[in-house]
Specification:
Strand content: 5-15%
Low-confidence stretches: none
Radius of gyration: 27 Å
Number of helices: 7
Distance between the termini: 72 Å
Shape: rod-shaped
Structural class: mainly alpha
Helix content: 40-55%
Largest sheet: 3 strands, antiparallel
């Protein structure tokens, strides 16, 4: 083969140490593990180094993308059990409570939630990183009129100014 393609030298190839080459070979190529690893490692076969053909490379790319999608789908079904490091996000939809939070009026907020026993702030969402929490919160703080009180307002445990309000919610 004139154009020897070395997959192991490509950026990110270390990920291949964590995938089951035998399963990829059987599932996507209908070939043996030996066939797959010979091409992956550019082994010498019949006196010549071998690699994947352009068609096989396309199939390998597609196969890895399928596995990536399947892993992503599977990981979304694993419960996100909160830890001490998790970021909690409460989404507040009571406009009066939101007004008190925006005005940083903790005492009035405490009185308000203590006086209205029908208020329910729901369970928080948990996120592993600040970036995930921010992505979830993106756009939540807007209502019909951006100058008015929003319809929904996020409180994040990672925000120091939000923590006293979260503590009040968790005490009711």
């Amino acid at each position: 083969m004139e154009n020897l393609i070395s997959i192991r030298n490509k950026e990110g190839a270390a990920i291949l140490d964590f995938v089951n080459c035998a399963a990829i070979s059987e599932r996507f190529f209908n070939r043996s593990r030996a066939w797959f690893t010979q091409r992956l490692n550019n082994n010498i076969v019949n006196g010549k180094p071998i690699s994947f053909t352009p068609e096989e490379l396309l199939k390998l790319r597609t196969s890895l993308k399928v596995l990536a999608l399947e892993l992503t789908e599977f990981s979304s079904h694993i419960p996100n059990i909160p830890t001490d490091m998790s970021i909690k996000v409460y989404v507040i939809d009571d406009r009066t409570a939101i007004e008190y939070i925006q005005n940083d009026d903790l005492e009035v907020f405490k009185d308000y939630i203590a006086s209205d026993l029908t208020l329910d702030f729901g369970e928080p969402e948990y996120f592993d990183t600040e970036a995930e929490a921010l992505a979830f919160c993106a756009g939540l703080g807007y209502g019909q009129d951006e100058r008015g009180i929003p319809d929904r307002y996020p409180l994040r445990s990672s925000e120091e100014s939000d923590q006293p309000f979260i503590e009040c919610i968790e005490k009711i």
